Amino acid sequence: MDNIHRTLSLVDAYAAENGVTPAWVVRKATGNPYLYDRLLKRAAQTDADLGKILALIEREATASQRAPSQTEPQGNASGTKRNDRVKRQQPKSEGTP
User: Fold this and answer.
1) How high is the pLDDT of residue 78?
2) What is the C-alpha separation between 97 and 84, in angstroms, rounded?
3) What DSSP character marks residue 71?
4) Between helices 2-18 and 22-30, what is the axis angle to 10°?
5) In the 8-state DSSP scheme, what is residue 74?
C-alpha cells in the first residue's frame, strides 16, 4: 500500500510544481478523468481494511495468551469430539449388495 501513497505524493508534488491539479496529471497520463479520486478512495479504504485486519490479529494474539486456543476442537461433556462419534461408511465391495 505504500506504493500507492508514494505515487499519490509524487503526483501531488508534480501538480503543485506545475500549477495543475493532481486529477489533471492522472487524467493526462491515463485518459481516465476519475482515476485520481478513485485512487484516493482506494488508498483510504485499503488503509481502513488493513487497520481492521491488524486490530483483529492483535485481539487474537492477546486472547490466545489469556485463554486456550479457540481454533482447536473442544470436546463435549463426555470428552469425545463430534468427529469421533460419526461412523464412517465403508465402501461396498462389488460382490456385496
Assistant:
1) 55
2) 28
3) S
4) 110
5) P
Cα 9–12–14 angle (5° rounding)?
Answer: 105
Amino acid at 32: N
Dig out the grid coordinates for 27 from the structure: 487524467
How far is 76 from 66, CA to CA, in rounded Å? 22
Q: Are 23 and 40 in contact (CB under 8 A)?
A: no
- For cell 481502513, what's the residue? 48
Tens digits of per-residue pLDDT, 24-61?
Answer: 999 999 999 999 999 999 999 999 999 999 999 999 98
Query: What are the CA-CA distances from residue 64 to residues 56, 60, 67 (Å)?
Result: 12, 6, 5
Distance CA 37, CA 40 (A): 5
The span from the CA of 41 to the CA of 47, in Å, is 10
Residue of higher predicted confidence among 19 and 65: 19
- CB-based contacts of 83, cutoff 8 Å, min separation 6: 73
Amino acid at 96: T
